[in-house]
Amino acid sequence: MTNPSDLQKYLGNQIKRYRKMANLSQEQLAENIGIATNSLSSIETGNSFMTVYTLEKILTSLNVTPKELFDFPEISYKETDMSEFIDKNLCHIKNDKQKLALLYNFIRLLI
Predict the structure, then answer these.
(1) CA–CA separation, 31 and 15 (whole Å)
(2) Alpha-carbon torsion, ordered 67, 88, 98, 111, to 10 deg
(3) pLDDT (0 to 100) of residue 1
(4) What is the pTM of this model?
């Protein structure tokens, strides 16, 4: 199982990969999304996370979908492990309207 800091690193690697595929430097992408270059560098290395607003700008600027960005090829999961994890943790989300709305919106983005 990955921990949250691993997920930040995977997401940062994906952003870096798609940035390079778009032939953008860190400076160019940072300027496009309105953040400092050192902030983008910290995001790409997994040392910091971004706001949802910045994430939306990154998706738009790199012309990628949330599904593409959150598909981490370096992680392999067993289907049963994923299902068990979701089932086990869904009860924590069902009683929290904010978390439920966030999950709902995220799933809608993936479909």
Answers:
(1) 15
(2) 20
(3) 42
(4) 0.70
